[in-house]
Amino acid sequence: MRALVVDPQARGRLAHAEVADPEPAPGQALVAVRAISLNRGETDSLLPEAPGGALLGWDAAGIVVRPAADGSGPAVGTPVTTVAAAGAWAELRAVDTGNLGVAPEGADFGALSTIPVAGTSALRALRRVGPLLGRRVLVTGATGGVGRYAVQLAARGGAHVTALSADPGQAEGLRALGAHDVVASLDDVTERVHGAIEVLGGEHLVAAYALLDKGGVLVSVGHSAGAPAVFDLGALRGDGGAHDRSLVSFHLLEERDIGPDLTWLAGEVAAGRIDPHVTWRGDWSRAAEAVEALLGRRVRGKAVLEIAPHGAH
Q1: Residues in domain Enoyl reductase (ER) (predicted)?
Q2: pLDDT digits (tens, 9 = 90+) for 64-87
Q3: For residue 138, how many C-alpha atoms fall within 13 Å in the half-sphere facing its CB?
Q4: Which of 61, 52, 115, 117 is nearest to 88 (CA)?
């Protein structure tokens, strides 16, 4: 099969190559990949350090071409969206059936490919916050993949959503997704929040934690700012009526029961009730161009690479 593998000498450090087809384990389905979405965690952190020949990729959507030998998972021909720690950037991927979601027939594979990391991270982070109805929720990095999903899902859950975006041109779009307030700085947040979905890290994580109300929960799901989070002495004491606060995190790629969440999100995206906000889309021959756009912060939302059916070169 063809795959995008790491090539330190190539533009974007990626090149097409012929590699062996994956051999699925008994609990894995073989999926013909039709679309992949790129995440900044891959392009900013993994790709620059990966050795030559490595096959990366978390998110992929496609069609089952061989069901799991143990009888779990969907049948041949089922459209699916999938997540795993590697292997998405190829014509075929073997994926645990527990991390595979069934999609409606006719759904856009490009949109489906955005769901695994961004959509499921947002969904599971909001569950960590707890009941949302009538509560205030802050979303940092709201114009990114996780952020846009989080804004929509929090609003669907009945929260009053405050979205952080340094780009004033994004305010109208974020309000259309369900944000009640859009701020350019956390200094502009005037009321405490019950929950915070924090994707930037660094000083933003520290400032967002300080905004939590009594019993509030901050879920750290990223560190795209690339800076350490340094808390001042006493910052965790919880004075001033804001005690009993929590700061939690989770690593999505270590979880093995994502399938039901992927299936639900696929249905919502396919029905148009959630906007995945694909703002860059092209054939996977343009992978280097997409990587450069992500590294240059020129993509607001998700970047998707589409793959022709396996064998149609």
Answers
A1: 12-305
A2: 999 999 999 999 999 999 999 999
A3: 34
A4: 61
Report residue 195 as tokens: 């929950």
pTM here? Answer: 0.94
- Is residue 148 within 8 Å of 124, Cβ to Cβ? no
Map residue 5 onto helix, strand or coil: strand
- Nearest Cα neighbor of 40 from 307, 306, 300, 258 is 300
- What's the CA gap between 96 and 82, in Å, rounded? 9
Mean pLDDT of 297-304: 87
CB 38 within 8 A of CB 28: no
| 302 pLDDT above the threshold of 50 | yes
DSSP string, 248-295: EE--GGG-S--HHHHHHHHHHHHTTSS---EEEEEEGGGHHHHHHHHH
Which residue(s) pair with 3 in the sheet? 17, 90
- Going from the C-alpha of 22 to that of each of 71, 80, 312, the distances in angstroms are 19, 17, 18
Report yes or no: 170 and 182 within 8 Å, Cβ to Cβ: yes
Go through the domains of the chain in sequence order and give each one's CATH number. 2-102+277-306 (3.90.180.10), 119-252 (3.40.50.720)
Instruction: Round the average pLDDT of the chain to a whole number and report it.
Output: 94
Q: What is the mean pLDDT of residues 141-168?
A: 95
Alpha-carbon gap, residue 298 to 281, rounded angstroms? 13
187, 212 Cβ separation under 8 angstroms: no
* 12 Cβ contact list (under 8 Å, min separation 6): 47, 287, 288, 289, 290, 291, 292
Task: DSSP for 108-157, please give it.
Answer: -HHHHHTIIIIIHHHHHHHHHH---TT-EEEESSTTSHHHHHHHHHHHHT
Name the one residue in this structure whose structure tokens are 């009538």: 134
Q: What percent of the chain has pLDDT over 90?
A: 82
